[in-house]
Write a structure and sequence with these properties.
The chain is of the alpha/beta class. It has helices at about 5-10, 20-25, 70-75, 80-95, 115-120, 120-135, 150-155, 175-185, 190-195, 200-205, 225-235, 240-255, and strands at about 30-35, 45-55, 55-65, 100-110, 140-150, 160-165, 210-215. It has a seven-stranded mixed β-sheet with strand order 1-2-3-4-5-6-7, with helices on both faces. Helix 7 (about 150-155) links the parallel strand 5 (about 140-150) and strand 6. It is globular.
C-alpha cells in the first residue's frame, strides 16, 4: 500500500490540480500577459504579467505545466528554461520600479536541465532570481500550488511569506532522485519521500512556510483565497522598505 507521504507526492503531481492559468483567471482582474526575456526567447513555462487584485495593481509570475500533451511539451512539463527565469527576473524588477507587489504561483518539478539550458546559464539566472528576490523593496508572496522542486522552485519562492496548497510538495530533490542517489535503489521511492519531509505539514512545523491552503479546483470561487492574499499584502505594504527587507532577511536566516 502506498504510504501517506507518497500519496501526497502523487496528489501534488495530479492532472486534476488547478492550473496556474485558472488561478490567475480567478484571482486577477484585467490580467495582461507579458512575454520574452529581452535576451533571446519567450519561455511558455513561465506565465507573467500585470493585473488587479481587488483593485490593487500586482505583478504575477507563475510556472505552468500544461493541460494538454501539446501544451506540456511546449512548457517542458513546467520546467522553465533560462529564458523563463530571465522573464521572471525582468518582471520582478519592473514590479519594483512601479511599486507593485509580486505574487508567484509555483508548480514545477524543477528547472529544465538539458545541455542548452546549461550553456545559456540556467544556474546563473536562478541565482540572480534568488538574489534579486531577496532584495526586492516591495511585498512578495510565494504560493506553492503543486510540485516545488529544487532551485527551479526556490527561484520564485523567496517571498516575505511562503504558502502551500494542502496537496503540494517542496523539496531539494524528487523522491525518485533521492532513492536513486542516496539509496542506490529507485524502488525505495516511497521511503525516500518520507525521509525528505516534503509535505506542507512537515514544512510548516519546520518553519519553512507560514500557511497551508485548502485545495481549489477549476471553476471554484476563489474569493476566500483572494481575501487572504489581499490581507497579507496589506500587512506587508504597511512596513517601511527597511522593515520589509529586514524581516525577509531574518525569515530565511532562520533555516
Amino acid at each position: 500500500m502506498t504510504n501517506q507521504t507518497y500519496q501526497k507526492v502523487l496528489a501534488a503531481r495530479s492532472h486534476e490540480k488547478i492550473s496556474i492559468q485558472d488561478l490567475i483567471d480567478g484571482l486577477i482582474d484585467h490580467f495582461f500577459e507579458l512575454h520574452g526575456d529581452r535576451a533571446y526567447a519567450d519561455d511558455e513555462a513561465v506565465i507573467g504579467g500585470i493585473g488587479y487584485l481587488d483593485k490593487r495593481p500586482v505583478t504575477v509570475i507563475g510556472i505552468q505545466k500544461g493541460d494538454t500533451p501539446t501544451e506540456t511539451i511546449a512548457r517542458h512539463g513546467g520546467s522553465p528554461t533560462p529564458a523563463g527565469y530571465r522573464k521572471a527576473l525582468r518582471l520582478m524588477k519592473q514590479a519594483e520600479k512601479f511599486h507593485r507587489p509580486v505574487l508567484t504561483l509555483i508548480n514545477t518539478p524543477g528547472a529544465w536541465s538539458d545541455a542548452e539550458a546549461e550553456y545559456k546559464g540556467i544556474g546563473t539566472v536562478i541565482a540572480q532570481c534568488l538574489k534579486e528576490g531577496l532584495r526586492l523593496k516591495i511585498p512578495y508572496l510565494s504560493i506553492i500550488v503543486g510540485e516545488a522542486g529544487s532551485g527551479g522552485a526556490l527561484a520564485l519562492a523567496v517571498g516575505d511569506r511562503v504558502w502551500m496548497f494542502k496537496d503540494s510538495i517542496y523539496s531539494v530533490i524528487s523522491p525518485e532522485g533521492y532513492a536513486s542517489i542516496l539509496f542506490k535503489d529507485a524502488s525505495r521511492v516511497e521511503e525516500a519521500a518520507s525521509v525528505l519531509k516534503l509535505t506542507p505539514d512537515d514544512l510548516l512545523e519546520a518553519g519553512v512556510i507560514e500557511q497551508i491552503l485548502p485545495e481549489y479546483h477549476r471553476d471554484d470561487n476563489l474569493t476566500v483565497l483572494k481575501n487572504e492574499i489581499v490581507h497579507v499584502l496589506d500587512e506587508l505594504s504597511a512596513l517601511s522598505e527597511s522593515q520589509l527587507l529586514a524581516q525577509r532577511y531574518q525569515r530565511f536566516r532562520r533555516f
